[in-house]
Amino acid sequence: MGKKIFSGVQPTGNLHLGNYLGAIKNFVNLNNDNENECIFCVVDLHAITVKQDPKELKKNIRETVATFVASGIDPKKSIIFNQSAVAAHAEGAWILSCVARMGWLNRMTQFKEKAGKDKEKASVGLYSYPVLMAADILLYDASHVPVGDDQKQHLELCRDIAQKFNNDFEIENFLQVPEPLIQKEFSRIMSLKDGSKKMSKSELSDLSRINLTDTKDQIVNKIKKAKTDPLPMPKTVKELDERLEAKNLIGIYASLTNSNLEKSVETFAGKNFSEFKEKLSEVLVGKIEPISLEIKKLLDNQSYLDNILLEGAEKANLISSKKIKKIKEIVGF
Ligand code: TYM
């Protein structure tokens, strides 16, 4: 039986290899299976939980759509829309925020990381952000949610919220409890400069990540400068536990070649990093350069991108307005 897929990506610029290997690549595979119904959301309401320049935000929303399409998501098969265009998301988030408990949100590690030392100055939206994410998913009765490893805790919260709503209002299985789809390997791509840190759009150094809009020369240069260690390439997977940078680079190679860590370690065992890096650059350029060129081409056709969003929002609205209507009835409005 087909799956009902929902996932979201924030339009905050610098979509990178982590977003691609952790999430978007999976979106494309799910989109290609005709049995599935897929919805991919550009989560602009989530983006404003930290300050955004309005002009940049608009540009980044289009760039995220262009990235979806350039990566291989077919807007005729999957619904692509931006969250703020469909009112049910904000409405649902409010109602669910009265179901979610403070204690649950207090445990969210991503808030702690993002808010940093000065929690008092973080926006209320940044704190309640996982509740909006739950609304996104639950409004569409999604059965499966493909995400990278960093979103696992938010999905568990979403499941808790769905169950509590169903229990509180004594309405069994009304909100569908979704399953996370997190790849076993390569679901957390790390920074090219520090193997203990997640690859991230907000990291200051551009050398820490491969952006999906990077040119061939940029990709080659970033891999050349990527941090390694002085030893030759590892001979066993076990060795990787202590060699985080090597683990990340080999993981990226394995993921891009649809292989696994074991085989990839075997291929390069004992060789020099420079030889491996050359091969890694080659597969990276082979995969990312066509996407990057296509993104740039699509960005020249704004009306095409805007139209995808417009049509997507109409379809998303049709589905979610029915669900929010029922939610309101259940609550007693
Ligand atoms: P966001 O925009 O931070 O990231 C988008 C997707 O990319 C994955 N990802 C990574 N995967 C592997 N390695 C990395 N270094 C890496 N960095 C990012 C993320 O796990 C994510 O899948 N809250 C979400 C967006 C969201 C959402 C939703 C997702 C809003 N509503 C509903 C699913 C369902 C976020 O901020 O993702």
How would you describe the overall organization of this protein?
The protein has helices at residues 17-32, 44-47, 54-71, 88-97, 102-106, 109-115, 124-138, 152-168, 216-225, 244-256, 261-268, 273-299, 302-331, and strands at residues 4-9, 37-42, 79-82, 144-146, 179-181. Helix 3 (54-71) crosses helix 12 (273-299). The protein has 2 domains: 4-186 and 302-331, HUPs (Rossmann fold), CATH 3.40.50.620; 206-297, Tyrosyl-Transfer RNA Synthetase (Orthogonal Bundle), CATH 1.10.240. Helix content is 54%, strand content 7%. The chain has 333 residues and is mostly helical. The radius of gyration is 21 Å and the shape is globular. A 3-stranded parallel β-sheet has the order 1-2-3, with helices on both faces. The site of tryptophanyl-5'AMP has 25 residues, from strand 1, helix 1 and helix 7.
Give average pLDDT, whole number: 97
> Under the CATH scheme, which architecture of the largest domain would be assigned?
3-Layer(aba) Sandwich
Ions and ligands? tryptophanyl-5'AMP
- The CATH superfamily name of the largest domain is HUPs
Structural Rg: 21 Å
Q: Which class do the helix and strand fractions yield?
A: mainly alpha
Overall geometry: globular
Would you spell out the secondary-structure blueprint of this structure?
Blueprint: E1 4-9, H1 17-32, E2 37-42, H2 44-47, H3 54-71, E3 79-82, H4 88-97, H5 102-106, H6 109-115, H7 124-138, E4 144-146, H8 152-168, E5 179-181, H9 216-225, H10 244-256, H11 261-268, H12 273-299, H13 302-331
Parallel strand pairs: 1-2, 2-3, 4-5
Bound molecules: tryptophanyl-5'AMP (TYM).
Residues 6-10, 18-19, 22-23, 43, 46, 133, 136-137, 145, 147-148, 150-151, 154, 187-189, 198-199 line the site of tryptophanyl-5'AMP.
